[in-house]
Design brief:
This protein is of the alpha/beta class. It is built from nine helices and 14 strands.
């Protein structure tokens, strides 16, 4: 069997930039990426991907170098790029040996496909082959979303698993939050306007045995119909602000909304916008300059019993 010669591109990036840099490298390489982080890297991550030997031409190499220069201009350090010739089959085996699980809070265990990862009592396993989409589970905004979901669950803000209830994941990316909601018993609709993200999310949802299943659609939030007991939205601040009234319209009585993807300094303004729409803030979470919040809509008004005043 002939071994396939390829080139590994490895970018060294500050941890806070890993999602954005992963999308960039995946776009340049046309392949999935692997993210490595550990204590020895001191807050830095390595992002690896393969390219055909003939594909890493001068223009693509310049794209990579220019990207690092742009990051350097923002004062981000350390930065670096490494290239090495590898056989694809050997690289895959090397990755399998390196692949690591990630625990988030006390409830979530994220692991790559094909890895046996025994969960502790009460942990939910999220199998994630993140491919070329946002949501590897390592970015602060994703971690905050999962921590907020765990808090809402433990504080009994969400329906019981055995009841029929629905969740909406806006801008699903890899589908990681949709999978988490599904593990809590929700019937999930995951949406994204990026066709590539939809394909990745569908693949990841298929890797996780969700009792009620989930579906992925390539539609904007404004076209979604119905009301949901849980809405998850880990997207950029401009998109969050555009969707304030849409989110409110999709939130059922007593429903929970978990927002992330914005910085701490922007949390107050975003909360104020939702408060005007009638959603109250139950909690705010913070990590590395990023923020998340748990919002809740008022419960449905109780109906008076016959013979009692309204």
């Amino acid at each position: 069997m002939t071994r396939k010669q390829t080139i590994e591109v490895c970018l060294t990036i500050p941890g806070a930039m890993q999602e954005e840099a992963s999308l960039f490298l995946a776009d340049v390489s046309g392949r999935s990426v692997i993210i490595e982080d550990d204590e020895a890297l001191h807050g830095t991550v390595r992002i690896r991907s393969l390219m055909e030997s003939t594909a890493l031409d001068a223009p693509r190499r310049k794209d990579l170098e220019d990207y690092l220069e742009r990051l350097k201009g923002y004062g981000l350090h350390p930065l670096g790029m490494g290239l090495r010739d590898v056989f694809e089959e050997e690289w895959i085996e090397e990755w399998k040996a390196r692949a690591a699980t990630l625990r988030v809070g006390s409830m979530w265990l994220i692991c790559p496909p094909g890895m046996e990862a025994p969960a502790s009592s009460g942990e939910k396993i999220i199998v994630l082959g993140h491919g070329n989409a946002f949501g590897s589970g390592r970015h602060p905004s994703t971690i905050l979303s999962l921590e907020a979901l765990e808090r809402a669950w433990h504080d009994s803000m969400l329906p019981a698993p055995e009841s029929e209830w629905s969740a909406l994941d806006v801008g699903t990316g890899t589908g990681i939050l949709a999978i988490a909601a599904g593990h809590l018993g929700a019937k999930v609709l995951a949406i994204d306007i990026d066709d590539q993200a939809v394909a990745v999310a569908e693949e990841n949802l298929g890797l996780n045995a969700l009792r009620r299943g989930a579906r992925v659609e390539a539609i904007p939030p404004g076209l979604v119909k119905g009301h949901f007991q849980l809405i998850l939205s880990n997207i950029t601040l401009p998109s969050q602000l555009e969707l304030v009234s849409v989110i409110r319209g999709l939130t059922g009585p007593g429903g929970v909304v978990i927002l992330s993807g914005f910085l701490e300094k922007d949390a107050e303004g975003l909360e104020a916008r939702h408060r005007k729409e009638g959603l109250g803030c139950e909690a705010r979470l913070r990590r590395g300059g990023w923020a998340a919040m748990i919002l809740r809509s008022p419960p449905a008004p109780s109906r008076a019993l016959p013979g009692q005043p309204e």
